[in-house]
User: Fold this.
Amino acid sequence: MKNIYVLAEHRKGTLRDTTWEALAAARTLAPQFGAEITCILLSNDASTISDRLVQEFSKVIAIEDPSLETFNSDACIKCLVSILGDKSDYLLLMGNSNSVIELAPGLSITLDAALATDCFGFDVVDGALCALRQIYSYKVNALVSFKGAAKMVATLRSGSFPFTPTAQAGGSVEKMESPLKSEKLRKVFVSYEEAEKGDVDISTAEIIVSVGRGIGDEPDMDVYQSLADTVGGVLACSRPIVDKNLLPKYHQVGTSGIEVKPKIYLALGISGAFQHVGGIKGSPLIIAVNKDARAPIFRVAQYGVVADINDMVPALEEKIKEIKG
Ligand SMILES: Cc1cc2nc3c(=O)[nH]c(=O)nc-3n(C[C@H](O)[C@H](O)[C@H](O)COP(=O)(O)OP(=O)(O)OC[C@H]3O[C@@H](n4cnc5c(N)ncnc54)[C@H](O)[C@@H]3O)c2cc1C
Assistant:
């Protein structure tokens, strides 16, 4: 693999974290293959976004076109094919966002490239790149090979590749002619439908106190909110808590809720169903409290406490307050 390309993802003129996480993955892989990292920016106005990109990438290839203001997989595939169509020996990295999920399969077919989606790690086996991804609804980790393909595309699970900015690349932008000028696009962007916005954003929180059905049928939610406030975190939950209307949907962690990547995830009375655990894979430190020593959450937790949360939570809060003085 000679080149690693990173697709810059942006929305409403702002780069998305998926771009930086893809760069973090590229930075770990590039030295192992002696590969060069290049960013690809498809936008209606490259200048504003590329200012930030060149701080981290030594090379940015940009295509500007009015139809690239909002995401359009049809337009993106045409642009990416115009950049990569005659190339080989590369890996293209992109975040596993809703937009990219729509883009990646069609793109890989058009490029005749091997595709691995929702990857959370990479390994090199006998000199060949392999990707780690989950199968059977998050139950099994699989190391998959690209079967010797010279063109590879991988989408990356959010939170799996932590990024550290350097702001030292001092890169340059190479503008390429848009292939879209005379093209008719089959897809048209209509509008953004914003999801309900809550008072907290658990997707960006650094500390999360998360509660599950173990808090009982008529819990005093103030107890858990107070613990979250004391540790400087936000309150989140498993799906049954939302189903019982104890917290709004935007607090729900999991595959049908929100994927989170806090530095600390404290799971209280959560069993660890795969739909829940699928949403916390990006967290480097999971601490679980459960009265059942065989609860599956203990398989993914770095620290586990077998205890009744009714005893544990007040004691924990008191101790934290004591330490904080
Ligand atoms: C299509 C689909 C999508 C789904 N998406 C999601 C999702 O996004 N997020 C999600 O969370 N779930 C999701 N679910 C539901 C998921 O399958 C589980 O049912 C759910 O995660 C269980 O939540 P829980 O751990 O809070 O409850 P339970 O599984 O009932 O676990 C409660 C735990 O609390 C412990 N406990 C009880 N009392 C105490 C106590 N006093 N002290 C300490 N521990 C105690 C018990 O030992 C138990 O382990 C989905 C399901 C489906 C079918």
Notes: The mean pLDDT is 94. The domain at 3-176 is CATH 3.40.50.620 (Rossmann fold). The chain has two domains: 3-176, 207-324.
